Amino acid sequence: MKKLFKFRYHSPSAQDTLRIGKKIGELAQKGDVILLCGDLGTGKTWLTKGIAKGLGVPKNYPITSPSFVFVHVYPGCFPLYHIDLYRLEKDVDWSLLGLEEYIFSEGVTVIEWAEKMPASLLPPQYLKIYIYFSNEGRDLEFVTNIAYFKQIGYYLKN
To answer: What pTM does this model have?
Structure first.
């Protein structure tokens, strides 16, 4: 595994979180997996909306949490596979879910509640974002071993 690059950022608003997501989507490439971790209501779906915008998902496709259907697929410059693991129990048989079909696809896969995934399902390269509540806004912690996603850290400093 490549060396992990970590950085933190404070997002003061939902609009700023969308802006960050858009930049991630613009940088994303075929086969990328973006893992989102955080409590209920921290902004995982807001970040995904921005990623969708950066990937060129048409505006007439509302980006919503796929909590009840497991996965939403959106067209864009690459397909966006938006997966939500919120409703999965700890004793789920992961081999029956078919996550590998999305994780190792030609699209960009965003997984909400990724902390529920066993480490054995993680691809060798990924961008993981932890989202935390803060006094005003959200704190985001980025962890990646994908070189071009390191640019986000530089983008956020400016």
So the answer is: 0.91
